[in-house]
Amino acid sequence: MAALDEPLKKILGGTTAKVLAEHLDLHTVGDLLHHYPRRYAERGELTRLADLPLDEHVTVVARVADARVHKFNAGRGQRLEVTLTDGSGRLQLVFFGKGIHKPHKELLPGRRAMFAGKVSVFNRKLQLAHPEYALLDGDTDGDAVDAFANQLIPIYPACQQMASWKITKAVDAVLPSAQDAVDPLPEALREGRSLVPLTEALLKIHRPDSKADIAGARDRLKWDEAFVMQVALARRRLTDTQLPAVPRQLVKDGILDAFDAELPFTLTEGQQKVSREIFDDLATEHPMHRLLQGEVGSGKAQPLDALVLTPSGFRPMGEMTVGTEVVVPSGERAVVDGVFPQGEREVWRLVLSDGSTVECDDEHLWIVGSRETGERVLTTRELRADLLRADGRPKWSIAPATPVDLDDGGERPLDPYRLGRSLPEDGLPAACRNAPVKDRRAVLRGLLDAGGEASGAGDVFRAASGPLAADLAWLVRSLGGAAQLQDTGAGGYDVHVALPEEGAGDAPGFRRSIRAIEHVGRKPVQCISVAHPSHAYVTDHFTVTHNTMVALRAMLGVVDSGGQAAMLAPTEVLAQQHHRSITEMMGELAEGGMLGGAEQGTKVVLLTGSMGAAARRQALLDLVTGEAGIVVGTHALIEDKVQFHDLGLVVVDEQHRFGVEQRDALRGKGKQPPHLLVMTATPIPRTVAMTVFGDLETSVLDQLPAGRSPIASHVVPAKDKPHFLARTWERVREEVEAGHQAYVVCPRIGDEEDAPKPGKKGASGGNDAAAAASSPEDIAEKRPPLAVLDIADQLTKGPLAGLRVAVLHGRMAPDDKDEVMRSFAAGELDVLVATTVIEVGVNVPNATVMVIMDADRFGVSQLHQLRGRVGRGSAPGLCLLVSEMPEASPARARLAAVAGTLDGFELSRIDLEQRREGDVLGQAQSGVRSSLRMLTVIDDEEIIAAAREEATALVGDDPELTGYPELRIALSALLDEEREQYLDKG
């Protein structure tokens, strides 16, 4: 047996080994040697007491400021209270009963010592109850002083049963075995990176003589973890390239071409790049494994006060909701099928040749044309970089929208021509602008006959008032013409008008060139997607924009090749939204085999766990026969009875919501391993992608959302300040009275199925004495999570009495859920009390406030997703995070971080810093049993990137690692049976 594999029991004895195994998961000499100090205390240095984390076992070095014995119970009981100080804060120690005698003699004012215990709160003060301690000066405890004779004192991650200095003694016992450590790094790599040998690193990390020793040891040990992990992932990627898969070549004149043929433009450069990467991977004989970051179909945004053309006239972007009818450039009507607030962004103003302007963000898409390139789709950023020709003239022009009939429902004069002849100085009634084409032409003709004169190829209207000039230009642009205002300097405008010839049928109107792009500043913005093959809509001054969907094109390409594509969504709500969006975007192409369906079309089916038996049987039949080319579903897709005819592509939406086992179960349904496209809208730092998703090639869409629209977030300390909670419900009532709606989110449903089991830790009704002895955060954690059904009942009978309140949760019947969401979206409900079923895919722009009960029970990314449900309209959003946790607790620090920023990337970094990365090669989602002891993916990006390059090159040259036996040993230690299975399935 190798020295580092020796059980600790043989070296340390059974009692110590048992504590290390049960409480710190340390079983062998190697485990203990890799249990590194958390930090180091210097002789004479006092640790900052102000930074102590609540509810954690800590070791501190501090000086005694005061020590007093207090009597209680009529003198029958006594306790010793010791106050520590370090200049930054104070900490109280408390000892009871007979345990006070020894510390009372030793912990005298001025004495410095090390103390270890669990930080709790009593009377709003931090304290350690009955801590262990070791004196650091004086001669009262010579053994303790000798144990910490080094200049730098290692402070180990400890537990209540094993203080840091006891771990130090255990490490001393096994440290000689470090000489037998097998060095996994190739000698050339170690020398090339100037890294110390592993044996030296282990000795210096545990017993350093200087800070330079610590730095050198840390660098070396971080490289060990990064390199061995990246070798494992590199071998996994290499193995994947050896697996057989059915190549999915693009097919001419298939369903994808038919879909693309409806697009009057090319994709943006970013979308083209991502599509090329995906289709190149799909065409290979090995499975694609690609991570696509970005909220696909969104990201191109306009300010909330930008205008969108609807059948009744222009409405502000901020008023757009799912289901709103809009006008597409061809003149047809379509509905908005997605609303995507994008937070505050830098906004630019396009200035067109007729003087009209349109505001948008840098990612906004414009259908533009030029003599050199023909028609293309370019972002604002791309236009800014290539705006003018060499001679300084505008390069790009924007096509007009087809004139359409409008009707705002108002009364119009019987004779629109006579209205125009009357020359209304105050402008035209809205009903005469938002009118049928023939009426708008009549009004315009009346205006020009009364006040216009011929001018070249058009007309000029002299000295119109400001309101009339603006309405005249509006009418001209609505009819496909061009109108330019020229200030006369006397309070009026000359309006130059050019119109397409009447009766020209489908002849195009006048194109307007883009003369300049000006910076406006930061504004709240959002974008919409439109359920129409063109994915386009008409915005301010009758200009045209659009959105598109990358993942759908990948699925259509696989269907063309004879395969099937499955999209796995985390919730029924999101699965239904994807299914509805895909079928609406595809139109008749989604009706393959059906009456009226396109010849090259296919079926798009939905499969969820709560579907009716008949619909479910038909969906399963369509899948096994191949009638359905695309299926959208939830976890129901993973069930054994679900069989595919030829599964070619698996698209996983919101990857962070699925475990590896679930992903693997769906991939296992292909005759050969299907291709895999993983999508996530949750921002992932590059380092996380390189570690957690190291087996996936990564694509990032440029239009990643930067957050959500303006949302004020605040923590509500319900326990400390109950009047804050009362004020929370007042704010909800105020928003409802202002015509808005509210969400209240709870972590639990509250029916019998999810109630805490009797006697289970955390159930109510436990031992009162135990509860009284617990810290406030213990009590808050042990209380059952607040439940939807209970909170809804309390609110309707109490602070929200009289409001229209409904509940929504995952165990409701599908029809009932749909009815509640429909009623809430229609404004028929004031408050929706729900579980996290509303986390994704729910768009109700009129909802402006969200109250999250027991917010500390949710993760950072989940809180970020939840609050994205408000602030989706023109009104700002408010998110109130209710918690009973004490102010100094890590949970409250996490909530404060969420309240402090809307930046998804920043929050993902905070989440990682607080929770750690988790076992990146195992199934754990958080840091309970991380394989990373020294490396942190947030801080060590350069090491991870360099290790990935080195590992990829080494594995490419020697896949079996035959020339690196030490590395093979380290790899075997890293890849225990569980992780090996994980990598096999990944």
TrEMBL record:
Q: Which UniProt keywords apply?
A: ATP-binding, DNA damage, DNA repair, DNA-binding, Helicase, Hydrolase, Nucleotide-binding
Q: List the InterPro entries hit by this protein, alphabetically.
A: DEAD/DEAH_box_helicase_dom, Helicase_ATP-bd, Helicase_C-like, Hint_dom_N, Hint_dom_sf, Homing_endonucl, NA-bd_OB-fold, P-loop_NTPase
Query: Per the record, where are the segments of Low complexity compositional bias?
Result: 766-775
Statement: the UniProt record of this protein carries the keyword ATP-binding: yes
* Residue ranges of every copy of the Helicase C-terminal domain listed in the record: 751-913
Q: Output the superkingdom of the source species.
A: Bacteria
Pfam families for the chain: DEAD (PF00270), Helicase_C (PF00271), RecG_dom3_C (PF19833), RecG_wedge (PF17191)
The record, for SUPFAM superfamilies, names: Hedgehog/intein (Hint) domain (SSF51294), Nucleic acid-binding proteins (SSF50249), P-loop containing nucleoside triphosphate hydrolases (SSF52540)
Q: Where is this region: Disordered?
A: 748-779
Q: Which segments constitute the Helicase ATP-binding domain?
A: 528-701
Instruction: Name the PANTHER family on file.
Output: ATP-DEPENDENT DNA HELICASE HOMOLOG RECG, CHLOROPLASTIC (PTHR47964)
Q: What is this protein called?
A: Probable DNA 3'-5' helicase RecG
Which organism was this protein described from? Answer: Streptomyces nigrescens
